[in-house]
Give the backbone structure.
Amino acid sequence: DIQMTQSPSTVSASVGDRVTITCRASQSISGWLAWYQQKAGKAPELLIYRASSLQNGVPSRFSGSGSGTEFTLTINGLQPDDFATYYCQQYDTYWTFGQGTKVEVK
Amino acid sequence: QVQLQESGPGLVKPSETLSLTCTVSGGSISRYYWSWVRQPPGKGLEWIGSIYNSGSTNYNPSLKSRVTISVDTSKNHFSLKLSSVTAADTALYYCASMGGNHDYWGQGTLVTVSS
């Protein structure tokens, strides 16, 4: 099975900062990668699919890149609503989530 | 707009079988993959398994021996059974339909395993 490793586990940032989260797959998943945002007590919400496609309604400050085994989620100009936990997910072979990255207030 | 709603007991005794149902509204269950995902308190997301409209299933290898997912197209719902539960199975259980930009989740239901 495919393992997904996110880094870092926690990011301390301020409003307006640029935040970058990395996700590495244990084998190539082409571009079959999604990014989710989850807030406490809520279901995850899809931000990015196919590694770099923005889901409808998601602000353009979110962007994704990468292919193969290395992927990145970038938030340009962090907003107060963006403090949350972010997960990558591969859907090349079944589904696997990364362990999550918490974006907290610095 | 597709909506999903989980239902089932919130408390299950150790060694018994956890059973949950997900009712789909606003769309036909005869399309797409339908999945179960869980999240232990304070921890990350774990994919449990998925079923396609044909009835074909895929399960997380770590849970495969204990999981059964089935679909009832006449009722537009799908179900999860997890046998021989322990305290480690205590989690928020979500039903979802994931695949590219087709992405819908239920609100989740907390299942506690305790005697």
